[in-house]
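Researcher: Quick test of sequence recovery. Tokens follow.
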């Protein structure tokens, strides 16, 4: 079976097996830890702007201005509460 034609669940399983076995290698894979940390921090940086954009476009799609005011306040409060709890 070609490496490119493997199913996604099989690729995920092989990746998890490789990561769990790489703990045994110790110093041999320390260079990969830096890349993994950078990747995770980049993903974390994308979460807050993505959530804000989704909430903003969802709120803006409401047609009635009166409903927009009520929903907009709730959305901003929810966003502020969740953003402040994530930063702790």
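Model:
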């Amino acid at each position: 079976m070609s490496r490119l034609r493997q199913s996604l669940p099989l690729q995920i399983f092989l990746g998890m097996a490789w990561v769990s076995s790489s703990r045994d290698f110790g110093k041999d894979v320390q260079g990969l830890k830096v890349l993994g940390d950078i990747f995770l921090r980049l993903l974390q940086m994308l979460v807050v702007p993505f959530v804000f954009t989704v909430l903003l476009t969802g709120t803006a799609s409401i047609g009635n201005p009166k409903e927009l005011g009520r929903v907009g306040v709730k959305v901003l409060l929810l966003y502020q509460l969740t953003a402040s709890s994530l930063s702790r």
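The CA atoms of residues 9 and 26 lie 27 Å apart.
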